[in-house]
Amino acid sequence: MSTITARSVSNIPDLLTLTEIVKKTATALLSKGGIPLRNGGLAPNIKRPAIKLDGSLVTEVDQRIQNQLKRTLISKWPQYGFIGEEMKHAEQVKTCEQSEHGYWVVDPLDGTTNFTAGFLFFGVSLALVIDGLPILAVIYDPVRDECFSAQLGQGAFLNGKPMTCPHTKSLRDCIANVDYKRLVGDLAAQLVRCPPYRSQRNLGSSVLEWCWLASGRIQLYLHGGQKLWDFSAGYLILQEAGGMATSLSGLPLDCSKLRKRSVVAAVNQQLLDQWVEWIDANSDISQSALF
Length: 291
Hints:
- By secondary structure, the chain is an alpha+beta fold.
- The chain folds into 2 domains: 6-163, Fructose-1,6-Bisphosphatase, Chain A, domain 1 (2-Layer Sandwich), CATH 3.30.540; 171-289, D-Maltodextrin-Binding Protein, domain 2.
- The chain contains 9 helices and 14 strands.
- It has helices at 6-9, 15-32, 60-76, 89-98, 112-117, 187-193, 206-214, 228-241, 269-281; strands at residues 50-51, 57-58, 81-84, 103-110, 123-130, 133-141, 146-151, 155-158, 161-163, 175-179, 199-201, 220-226, 244-246, 261-266.
- Strands 3-4-5-6-7-8-9 form a 7-stranded mixed sheet, sandwiched between helices.
- A hairpin with a 4-residue loop joins β6 and β7.
- The longest helix is centred in the first third of the chain and has 18 residues, at 15-32.
- The chain is globular and about 50 Å long.
């Protein structure tokens, strides 16, 4: 993975400006659609979701938010490319490979299944990736009006206030967020039979799960396969808050490619070491195969 150079971090966009763009875009378009954020249920004037080739859902709200963010970001910072979850794969690949100065990575509405069901846990995610690393990150939860943000080397923030991961020391004291359906081999069964943590959740929005980890609401994280827009912003926010993450095979979460990445993460290095050790001891498959 490329290293950050002086060129990479000079004259980058202002983080506060980005948070305002994301919040304004999400709030305006959700309100325009009549989305009852705090009451549940899909608004009557929003069409039923479509099913994509990978089985996930997409709504017109996803498209609206992505299109508006693309227009705004490109108009203000035309030097950067743009990758959105709802773009065609060929366009994503082209941007990833040919954007000399870096690219925006947008998940316009992560947790679409939650959104369409009236389960109020979904978010909008934006990252700026330069030389394969996320430099800026903004993730907005419109239901709770919580905006998580980070800048490389400058810390992580929740609604503008500094955010730091807790110093929890033992797996037994932890709440873990585990996405079982993407785990391979016997690992999922072992987690059900003999979990090493106090309790487990799966909340259905990767971008917000990263933020809840960074804020200490959960302390452990495990996911079998996330795409670039699922982890690029949250990864930076967690790191800047003091947390740690890697793939199940022990590799960094490289943002220079589009391939899926597994994620194992914790609020500090001590916990991550324990978490990885337990996973290695309870998996029946070589972790090198788990991207």
